[in-house]
Amino acid sequence: MNRLFALVWTAAGAFIGFQALSIALGPKGDASGWWLALAFAVVAIFFFWRALREWATADAPAVKPIASAPRQQSPSSNSAPGAWRGAPVPLETQIAALSDAGLTMAPGRSIEELFVSWPRADYEQDPYNLILFMYGSEVEAEPAGRWFCERGWNFDMECLSEAGDYAEAFGQIARITGQPQLVSDLSDNFDIDQSFCEIGYTISGRQRTLKARVDNDWADPEAATAFVRDLEAAVGDGRRFWAADNGQASVLFFLTDAEAAKINALRKNILEFYANADQG
């Protein structure tokens, strides 16, 4: 293809060059004729230069196409500070260690279902990170609603589009406490075109209304924090919300401090107390 372009540039250069020669040799009323001939000559030279360039690149070796990028993990990448630098950890070992720390796979879930989302090697080369992300997620196959862990949920802060979305998100947060019945009458009047919205609910028989700032489709972290503090107080058994950082999301878990400490011993500071994590 480059040589075809070279021939086109050559033909154009020859034509313009012929015009320049005709003007130079023909009658001229004043000096402007010489300037016109010079301009045509410059254009012809440029065309010949382009022809030579196209012809030369036709013989150059083809550039090797860039390989397709692998599927990007939702959790933080291996090059990030604090990334795992040890040997791979078998997935079964990770599942057993998390179970010992209080996070078990939900009844009916299997290792094979984890492989729907990521290959075994990804879990084992990024231990206690990718598996925790999946513990806040559903099986990525029909039917929907099959959570990998009943005590975790991946809370994507960019989750709002219409009224009722806060109620849906807060309902999921209540679910992972194991006592969703503590919260009832969840509702909100979110409107992306307004500056504020209200979130209403009843918790332990007490009516609550939170005022949340509207920031496009992002949930207000202060409203989310207020809700989880209400839940912690209502449950009242010492468990708190902990979070594994997932970029714009937080994978929430409802744990005792001792359980969180066990998980952080598996991978340093993989969990943070949610009051601190949502302010980062």
Strands of the widest sheet, in order across it, are 1-6-5-7
Oligomer: single chain
Q: How many alpha or pi helices?
A: 10
Distance between the termini: 54 Å
The coarse silhouette is elongated
Q: Nearest-angstrom radius of gyration?
A: 32 Å
Count structural domains.
2
Main β sheet profile:
4 strands, antiparallel
Query: What does the average pLDDT come to?
Result: 83
Structural class: alpha+beta
H/E order of the elements? HHHHHHEHEEEHEEHEH
Proportion of beta-strand residues: 15-25%
The number of distinct β-strands equals: 7
Helix content: 40-55%
Low-pLDDT parts are: 59-73, 76-81
Structure description:
- The radius of gyration is 32 Å and the shape is elongated.
- It is of the alpha+beta class.
- The strands form 2 sheets. Strands 1-6-5-7 form a 4-stranded antiparallel sheet. A 3-stranded antiparallel sheet has the order 2-3-4, covered by helices on one side.
- It has 2 domains: 2-58; 91-277, no CATH class.
- It has helices at residues 2-25, 32-58, 91-100, 111-114, 120-125, 130-135, 165-175, 221-235, 257-266, 274-277; strands at residues 152-156, 183-188, 196-203, 206-213, 240-246, 249-255, 272-273.
- The protein contains 10 helices and 7 strands.
